[in-house]
Amino acid sequence: MSIIENIIILSKGIKGNIMIITKHGHKRIKERLGLPKRAQIRHINVVLKNGVLSSNKGFEGFKIIYHGFLYIFSLTTKLEPILVTTYQNSNSLY
């Protein structure tokens, strides 16, 4: 099973609500997408489920593109995703 499959399984809530978003990530989602904190975890679960993998750095992290935004994730030692930040994907240089 790949890292992304593990992340999708974890984000579905099989092991409870384990999604982690950094303070910087919360600020950027609020600033760039306009989502309140209550909706951010649900949105990130949808991103992990339906987004397109842009790059995969193994155990260091990965990037996902979803609806014109680039989401940068890191991984904990237990392979749980941590949202680090979000960028508007105006070009594909990321």
Q: Helix and strand layout, with pairings?
A:
Elements: H1 3-11, E1 20-21, H2 23-33, H3 37-50, E2 52-56, E3 61-66, E4 69-75, E5 81-88
Parallel strand pairs: 1-5
Antiparallel strand pairs: 2-3, 3-4, 4-5
Describe this protein's structure:
The chain has one domain. The protein contains 3 helices and 5 strands. A hairpin with a 5-residue loop joins strand 4 and strand 5. With 94 residues, it is of the alpha+beta class.
- Number of helical elements: 3
Which band does the percent of strand residues land in? 25-35%
Order of SSEs: HEHHEEEE
* Residue runs with pLDDT of under 50 for 5 or more positions: 5-16
- Biggest beta sheet attributes: 5 strands, mixed
Estimate percent helicity: 25-40%
Q: Mind telling me the C-alpha Rg?
A: 12 Å
- Output the structural class: alpha+beta
End-to-end separation in angstroms reads 26 Å
Average pLDDT, rounded to a whole number, is: 77
- How many domains make up the coordinates? 1
Major beta sheet, strand line-up: 1-5-4-3-2
Bulk shape: globular
Number of E-type strands:
5
Summary?
The chain is an alpha+beta fold. It is 36% helix and 30% strand. The protein has one domain.
List its salient traits.
94 residues; alpha+beta; 5 strands
